Amino acid sequence: MTEPASVSRLPLAFAAGNVAVVTGAASGIGLAAAERFAALGLRVVLADLAGTALNQAGERVAALARAGATDVLTLPTDVSRSADLQLLREATLERFG
After folding, report:
1. Does 1 score more than 50 pLDDT?
2. How far is residue 5's CA from residue 94's CA, in Å, rounded to a whole number?
3. Beta bridge partners of 76
4. Where is 9: in which H helix or E strand?
5. What is the arithmetic mean of pLDDT over 54-78?
């Protein structure tokens, strides 16, 4: 089976199995990007402020991911705090290598 032309022209960074870290992932453009990345076969890290919206976004993205929740990490993150960014980095590397 061949991929649609729109997928085959994407840069290698968007190859299935790669990891996308999306900040602002609980809503809007961030959520749309996370959903698209999951649909392309990427493993996705959703980072945003803690709350119901982030949890629901994680569920939506997991529903699109090839391996479901295994391919998705949801992490409450305040990008204005360097400690949160360090935790985001560490958790991403621990989960996805």
Report:
1. no
2. 34
3. 48
4. none
5. 98
Mean pLDDT of 37-65: 98
**How is 15-41 classified by DSSP, letter by letter?**
STT-EEEEETTTSHHHHHHHHHHHHTT
Exposure b/e, 62-75, CB count within 10 A at least 16 = b: bebbeeeeebbbbb
Is the pLDDT at 76 greater than 80? The verdict is yes
* pLDDT above 70: percentage of residues in the chain: 92
User: What would the two tokens of residue 68 be?
Assistant: 């479901």
* DSSP, residue by residue, 47-80: EESSSHHHHHHHHHHHHHSTTGGGGEEEEE--TT
Give the DSSP H/E element, type plus range, for residue 7.
Answer: helix 5-8
